[in-house]
Amino acid sequence: MRSPNGILEDAARLFAFLSETEEGPERADIVLAMGSQDLTVADTAARAFQEKGAAWLVCSGGFGKDTAQLFQEPEGVLYGQRCLELGVPEDRIIVEDRAANSGENFLLSRALLAGRGILPQRGVIACKPYMARRARAAGAWQWPEVSWSVARPEVGFQAYIDQGNDMTAVLELMVGDLQRLRVYAGRFQEPVEVPEPVWAAYERLAGAGCDRYVIREI
Questions:
Q1: What is the distance between the alpha carbons of residues 41 and 47, in angstroms, rounded to a whole number?
Q2: Which DSSP helix (H) or strand (E) runs through 125?
Q3: With contact defined as beta carbons under 8 Å apart, do 75 and 40 qualify?
Q4: Which of 63, 110, 111, 135 is the most exposed place for a label (fewest CB within 10 A)?
Q5: For residue 137, which of 125, 128, 129 has the smallest C-alpha distance?
Q6: CA atoms of 158 and 92, how far apart (whole Å)
Q7: What are the structural domains of the chain?
Q8: Confidence of residue 218 (pLDDT cuts 50, 70, 90)
Q9: Which residues pair with 59 in a beta bridge?
Q10: Which run of H or of E encompasses 142?
Q11: What is the pLDDT of residues 162-175, one digit of tens each?
Q12: Across 37-55, average pLDDT
């Protein structure tokens, strides 16, 4: 059985790897806020919209695997309300309220914008920290016409938990996301190389019971 310290070390390793991002352009046409159980992503999205001088802020999300029993309204609706409170003009916010996974965040948002004649070239994905690497990989595959960068809170694993995020839920979601980097590579998202020490940490955490979102049949 893994010790608590061992589990925390593996969790911090996964969090750091999944949170890695690259510098993006100074300006962007759109910001795409990816819905999740973390409502503070809306704050990140509003800040990116203002800093990047974006024309549109898309708040995308219906009810996902981690929010169907948590929220009464779709993620995109809740994000849109928060962005409005933070000063984003109402006529610049587009709500997509049906996406149930990361691929649909891009596909449905893309269709929604195309229906309005909006064809962006540069975009910023706003997401929770440990979604950063997978979000960019999904965006590059699902919406390749856009050059994507990622905006996420600059925070480490322990600080993220100390903000009030449920540790068990975060561990389970990270393990599921890490596995999907390999399982979905070349099908739903751009391939991402996962270093062996990171994969070994994933296997230990999954073996310790943090496997709620692990795909069983591949």
A1: 10
A2: strand 122-126
A3: no
A4: 111
A5: 125
A6: 35
A7: 4-17+156-207 (no CATH), 21-151 (3.40.50.620)
A8: low
A9: 33, 95
A10: helix 132-142
A11: 999 999 999 999 99
A12: 96
